[in-house]
Amino acid sequence: MAKYLVIVESPAKVKTIKKFLGANYEVAASNGHVRDLPKSQLGIDVEHDYEPKYITIRGKGDILANLRKEVKKAEKIYLATDPDREGEAISWHLMAALKLEGKKVYRITFNEITKNAVKESLKNAREINMNLVDAQQARRVLDRMVGYRISPLLWAKIKRGLSAGRVQSVALRLICDREEEINAFIPEEYWSLDVNLKIEGEKKPITAKYYGTEEGRQSITSKEQADAVMASLEGAQYRVTEVKKGERMKKAPLPFTTSTLQQEASKVLNFSTQKTMRLAQQLYEGVDIKGEGTVGLITYLRTDSTRVSEEAELQAADFIKSRYGEEYQSEKSAEKKTGQKIQDAHEAIRPTDINRLPALVKDELPRDLFRLYQLIWKRFTASRMSGARYETTSVKIQATEHIFTLSASRLLFDGFMSVYMQEEDKEEENSLAKELDKDSRLEYLSFDPRQHFTQPPAHYTEASLVKTLEELGIGRPSTYAPTITTILARRYVVKENKNLYVTELGEVVNNMMKEAFPSIVDVNFTANMEALLDGVEEGTVKWKTIVSNFYPDLEEAVKNAEKELEEVTIEDEVSDEVCELCGRHMVIKYGPHGRFLACPGFPECRNTKPYFEKIGVACPKCGGDIVLKKTKKGRKYYGCINNPECDFMVWQKPSGEKCPKCGDMLLEKGNKLVCMNEQCGYVTGKIPVEKQ
C-alpha cells in the first residue's frame, strides 16, 4: 500500500508522476485552487486588519473529500503544486482545507516533469514559503478590492456586466492612449532619392541612396527639393571616394520567457496569447509519446528568467557539438540582465530534452502543439549556439558636392541561424557582384525619386501589448494572457487583423476610470505595486502594509465618485427619429454593443432600430448625411447614411471643409485639419475652438 501522497494541481500530471515514483507513492490532483474569496461579497474584513475570508470553491467538495481519504492513509504528504506564487498559495490552502497541521507535510517543486527533476525535488523537500503565499494573497486581495469596489460604479454609470481590474484597466488605458496618438498624428512628407549606376564591365547595375553633401546628412522634404538635387547633378561624374570593409556579429537570441514566447508565437504562428498559454500548458504537463508514455516536453511556462540549468547547458553543448560541429557551439551562454526581480528563480522555457527533436514527435502531436514545440526547441537550441558573422562593405560615391552611399553584407558564418531565424534575421544578402574601389569607373543610368510619408505609431497587437506591459513592469508572466482575454471579452477592445482597437464602450470606461480613479490607471503606480509585491516575496515588505495603505485611498475615491454619480442622471435622449409603428419620437438607449433607437412606448410598441449619430456634414459622393458608425467588431468610423448604395467611408471625422489645395474633404486629426487625399498632404493650423 502507498505510504506517501503527492498532491499536484492538474490531473494531466498524475499518471506521468506516478510512473516516475513507483508503488510507494499515490499521486492525486487538486484541480487548481480549492479555496478562494467568496463571489457574493468583498470577502475581506476591512475592520479587522484586512483578513481575507476564504471559502471552499463550489464544486470542489468531492475532490477535497477524496484527498482527505488519501491523507488518512499516508505517512508523508508532498504538496507538488506549480513552482510559483500561485502554486505556493494553492499548497497553503490545501494545508488548511485538508487540516494538515501536525502531519508530516513537505513542499516540493520541479521546473519540468521529468524523472530526474521529480526525484530530485523529493530530496529537496521544504516547508511552505509564506513570503510567496503572502505575495499571492496581496495580489488577490488588491485585485478583489479594485474589482468589487469599482465595478458596481461602472454598472451604475454605464451598464451592468462591466468590470474594472487593477492590471486590465492599465492595459486598456495604454491602448486608448495609443489610439489618441494615432488619431492626432500628422504625416510629414519626405523623399528618398536613389541613383542607378553601371560599373564598367558589369551587366548588373548598382543602386546608391542619397546621403547629403560634404557638409553632412541632408533630408529631402519635397518634390521641389528632389528636383533641385537631380537638376544640379545633370551631366555630373560619379566616383567612389571611400570603401570601408568590416565584420558584424549577430548574437544568438535568448531562450524564451513567458512574454517573449507569447510575442514570437503571435508573430510567427499567429496564436493569441491565450492559445499560446493553453498549448504550452499541455506541453509542460505531458503528451503521450509512442514508446515513452506520457512525457513533459517543456519546462515550466510561467517565467521571466532566461537562466538555464547546468544539466541542460551541458546536454545542449554535447548535442550542438555532435550535430553541427564545434564551431557552432556558443563560447558563453547569454543571459538577460534585468533590474527587475527574476520570478521565483525559474529557468527559461526550454525543451526538457534537447535530443527529442521536433521531427521525432511530429506524428504524435496535433499540428498546433507541434508548431509551438518546434518554436521552443529551435529557439532554445539557437540560444546555445554561436553568433552569425557577416562581412560588411560600405561605399561612398560622390558627384559634385552630393554624396550617395551604398552598403552591402555577405554572410560568412551562419551560426545559430542554421537552426532559427526571426523576421529581422531574414535580411536579403546584397553583396556586390564586383568589388568596388577608388579606381572603379561608374556610369549614370537613372534616378529613382520616391515620395514617402512618416507613419503614425502602430496599433497595439497582443504581442506588442505584452512587450509593453513587461517593459513597464506591469503584471507578471501569469497575468498577460488573462488580462488581454478579459478586455476582449468585455468588448472594451476588439481585434482586427492582429491589431487591437478600442471600442466606444472601452473609451467610456477608460475616461471614467481616468476621471474617478487616476491612480488605478496610472502606469507608474501599477508598476510600483508590482515592485512592492516582489518585496513581499523577498520578505522585505509585509503584505497587509500594502493593502492597508491602498484601501483607504480607494474607498475615498469610490465615495467621491458615488457622490458625483448621484448628481448625474442619465435620461434617455430623445431623437428626431419618429417610430413608424406608433408615431412617438424614438429615444437613444445603450445596449451591450453600444447605442440603438428604441420606442418609448415599450412594452406596447417594441420597435427598435440602429442609431446613427449625424455629424452635420454632407457626403461628398452623394450628398447624404455622414454618420458615425461601427464595424461588426465595434471599431468607430464615419460613413454615408445611404450605404450600401453609397460606399463613402473614412476613419477620421470629416470637418465639412474642403481642401484649398485639391478640393477634397478635410478630416479632423488631433487638433488639426488634414486633407483626406494622402498624396496632397495639406495640413491646416489648429481647429478653431468653436468647431472642436
TrEMBL record:
It is an enzyme of class 5 (isomerase). One of its GO terms (cellular component) is chromosome. The keyword Manganese does not apply. One of its GO terms (biological process) is DNA topological change. Residues 163-168 are annotated as: Interaction with DNA. One of its GO terms (molecular function) is DNA binding. It holds the Pfam family Zn_ribbon_Top1. It comes from the Bacteria. Residues 129-558 form the Topo IA-type catalytic domain. Residues 3-113 form the Toprim domain. Keywords: DNA-binding, Isomerase, Magnesium, Metal-binding, Topoisomerase, Zinc, Zinc-finger. It catalyses: ATP-independent breakage of single-stranded DNA, followed by passage and rejoining. Its EC number is 5.6.2.1. The active site is at Y300 (o-(5'-phospho-dna)-tyrosine intermediate). The record marks H33, R139, R140, D143, Y148, W155, R302, R490 as: Interaction with DNA. The keyword Hydrolase does not apply. InterPro entries: Topo_IA, Topo_IA_2, Topo_IA_AS, Topo_IA_cen, Topo_IA_cen_sub1, Topo_IA_cen_sub2, Topo_IA_cen_sub3, Topo_IA_core_domain. Monomer. Releases the supercoiling and torsional tension of DNA, which is introduced during the DNA replication and transcription, by transiently cleaving and rejoining one strand of the DNA duplex. Introduces a single-strand break via transesterification at a target site in duplex DNA. The scissile phosphodiester is attacked by the catalytic tyrosine of the enzyme, resulting in the formation of a DNA-(5'-phosphotyrosyl)-enzyme intermediate and the expulsion of a 3'-OH DNA strand. The free DNA strand then undergoes passage around the unbroken strand, thus removing DNA supercoils. Belongs to the type IA topoisomerase family. This is DNA topoisomerase 1. It comes from Candidatus Acetatifactor stercoripullorum.
